[in-house]
Design goal:
Amidase signature (AS) enzymes; 484 residues; 13% strand; binds glutamine; three-stranded mixed beta sheet; alpha/beta; 11 strands; single chain
């Protein structure tokens, strides 16, 4: 059952070939048996899931249930879930039980989707390896001595290990696409503003975007309509028409202009990754698409600009965790100052502290002009590179990550090496564009991802381009050897 696509699962549920309770129990059993080896879930909500499954079965019995009714999925532990602990991978929120749910969690619940549990992640979504989680690292199901990527490593690993058909995730600089790439699954980060951020714990508000992980583009298309809703509670949510994301999947790609950025194929790209991406580009040519060499000349500014802007925003967003209102509070504070200091010193991990320090520094009166305002100028140049590129091409393709999954601890001592993991994904967040990763090969038994970057609100075209590739290739159907 766990190898069926979401279209097949929906069909089974709607025709009552399987009940939501049976399906939910099947995935809960897999999680209980296999997840001790991966650590992809922080919380499993078995009892609540079965109650939701029974409610879904009752709706299905009445007829006219929404398409997704009864389908189980997982939510990244960055999304608030009413009555269910939402830790954001941090000791700071280890005891936090939100009184409300994120809009996207509510959207799925209203459609009858069953929540299996909450997935592990880098602390406050800061990281590319899941090694910064308070709950310990997630293991890559393809190679358990390697990282699954991050920060949505739990969501990626649980989908790759067939512990859930799909999971929500979030992407501030690559956290959907990079783990999707390292775990051999498909992941979509929509256009900034397309999806409500209400109830998603903020890291860097001008970059954060909620999205999806599943095995195929078609699976994502089936889930995306329910994820998407205009939400007045998020002031950056855009009231833009919502298409039927399934409608364009089957369009032929004749004449599609694919931009291939020269800057994405230079030094630092693993030869095996480059070869897999090249082969994917050739496949697109065989489907009638035309490859156009393009330049995104300010690409080299993306990582430096991001590591000024994201920490600046995070230092402001994380100031709310002060030991007073909610979250971790130190024992026996001597006075208010001691309460603030020790609650934050004890509640946050090293990477989060590093970012808060950098952010406070670049926003300080003496350095604001030298760093923060320069980074914002670079951000605009990066965005304009894409605006010019999309005058010549319909979509941009390249690698998602510079190399396949790396070993635990191999980048731990060098934060900059870790930051370079997102060298191809970060520009998309700085520009607010949608990005996607789909599996396009294996190197030494480990998956490689192809990145698709679309124009604003071009999610339908991206899903179409990804689906056409998946119709003619089988990388998205491959499972890690340990998974049957
Ligand atoms: N790896 C990047 C970082 O550490 C991106 C994380 C993310 O997208 N949430 O900030």
């Amino acid at each position: 059952m766990h190898n069926l696509s979401i279209a097949q699962l929906i069909n089974q549920l709607q025709t009552k070939a399987v009940s939501s309770r049976e399906l939910t129990q099947h995935f809960l059993n897999r999680i209980a048996q296999l997840d001790p080896g991966y650590n992809s879930f922080v919380t499993v909500t078995a009892e609540q899931a079965l109650a939701q499954a029974d409610a879904a079965d009752a709706r299905l019995a009445q007829g006219n249930a929404p398409d997704l009714c009864g389908l189980p999925m997982a939510h990244k532990d960055i999304f608030c879930t009413q009555g269910v602990r939402t830790s954001c991978g941090s000791k700071m929120l280890d005891n936090f039980i939100p009184p409300y749910s994120a809009t996207i969690v509510e959207n799925y619940a209203a459609a009858g989707v069953v929540m299996l549990g909450k997935t592990n992640m880098d602390e406050f979504a800061m990281g590319s390896s899941n090694e910064t989680s308070y709950y310990g690292p997630v293991k890559n199901p393809w190679a358990t001595h390697c990282v699954p990527g991050g920060s949505s490593g739990g969501s990626a690993a649980c989908v790759a290990a067939r512990l859930a058909p799909a999971a929500t995730a979030s992407d501030t600089g690559g956290s959907i696409r990079q783990p999707a790439s390292l775990c051999g699954i498909s992941g979509l980060k929509p256009t900034y503003g397309r999806i409500s951020r209400w109830g998603m714990i903020a890291f860097a508000s001008s970059l954060d975007q909620a999205g999806l992980m599943a095995r195929s583009a078609e699976d994502i298309a089936l889930l995306l309509n329910t994820l998407t809703s205009f939400d007045a509670k998020d002031s950056t949510c855009v009231d833009h028409p919502i298409p039927d994301y399934r409608a364009d999947l089957t369009k032929p790609l004749n004449g599609l202009r694919i931009g291939v950025p020269v800057e994405y194929f230079g030094e630092g790209l693993h030869a095996g990754t480059a070869a897999a991406v090249d082969a994917a580009l050739k496949h697109y040519e065989s489907l009638g698409a035309r490859l156009v060499s393009i330049s995104l000349p300010h690409s080299s500014l993306s990582v430096p600009a991001y590591y000024v802007i994201a920490p600046a925003e995070c230092s402001a967003n994380l100031s709310r965790f002060d030991g007073v209102r909610y979250g971790y509070r130190c024992k026996d504070p001597q006075d208010l100052e001691d309460l603030y200091r020790r609650s934050r010193a004890e509640g946050f991990g090293d990477e989060v502290k590093r970012r808060i320090l950098i952010g406070s520094y670049v926003l300080s009166a003496g350095f604001y002009d030298a760093y923060y305002s320069q980074a914002q100028k670079a951000r605009r140049l990066i965005q304009q590179d894409f605006v010019s590129a999309f005058q010549q091409v319909d979509i941009i393709l390249g690698p998602t990550s510079p190399s396949p999954a790396f070993e635990f601890g191999s980048k731990g001592q060098d934060p900059v090496a870790m930051y370079l993991e997102d060298i191809y994904t970060i520009a998309t967040n700085l520009a607010g564009l949608p990005g996607m990763s789909i599996p396009c090969g294996l190197v030494d038994g480990k998956p490689v991802g192809l990145q698709l970057i679309g124009n604003y609100f071009a999610e339908s075209l991206m899903l179409n381009v990804a689906h056409q590739y998946q119709l003619g290739t089988d990388f998205h159907t491959l499972a890690p050897a340990a998974i049957s």
